[in-house]
Amino acid sequence: MILNPGSVGLPAYRDELPRTHRVETGTPHARYALLEGRAEGWSAELIQLSYDHGEAAARAALDAILSDMLLNQVKGMELLLGGRCQE
């Protein structure tokens, strides 16, 4: 059985509510756990993998920009077609 022992996609964040705070895992590594049932009982192994987190962050930022651009284009088409962009 494979488990997600924490946040793979959000290893750190900063928030202003309810009070300004920051949460970090201390490392950008991806993590997961393997849980294996055996005759003698259960065994758990925590796995940590390195990845190019700078590249992942850049790719996520680009995806957000492209998504916003596409959304704006769709909204523009809806305005041009008088709200008939549902076909």
Describe the 3D structure.
The chain has 87 residues and is α+β, with helices and mostly antiparallel strands. It has two domains: 1-51, no CATH class; 52-87. It has one helix at residues 53-80; strands at residues 2-3, 12-15, 21-24, 30-38, 41-49. The strands form two sheets. The protein has a three-stranded antiparallel β-sheet, with no helix packed on it. Strands 2-3 form a two-stranded antiparallel ribbon. A hairpin with a 5-residue loop joins strand 2 and strand 3. The longest helix is centred in the last third of the chain and has 28 residues, at 53-80. The protein starts with a strand and ends in a 7-residue tail after the last helix. The model has no long low-confidence stretch (mean pLDDT 78).
Helix/strand layout:
Layout (H helix, E strand, L loop, with lengths): L1 E2 L8 E4 L5 E4 L5 E9 L2 E9 L3 H28 L7
Antiparallel strand pairs: 1-4, 2-3, 4-5
String of helices and strands: EEEEEH
Reading side by side through the largest sheet, how are the strands ordered? 1-4-5
Which sheet architecture does the biggest sheet show?
Answer: 3 strands, antiparallel
Radius of gyration: 21 Å
Shape: elongated
Separation, N- and C-terminal Cα atoms: 44 Å
Mean pLDDT, nearest integer? 78
In which range does the helix fraction lie?
25-40%
How many strand segments? 5
Return the structural class: alpha+beta
Low-confidence stretches: none
Strand content: 25-35%
Helix count from the secondary structure assignment: 1
Instruction: Work out the count of structural domains.
Output: 2
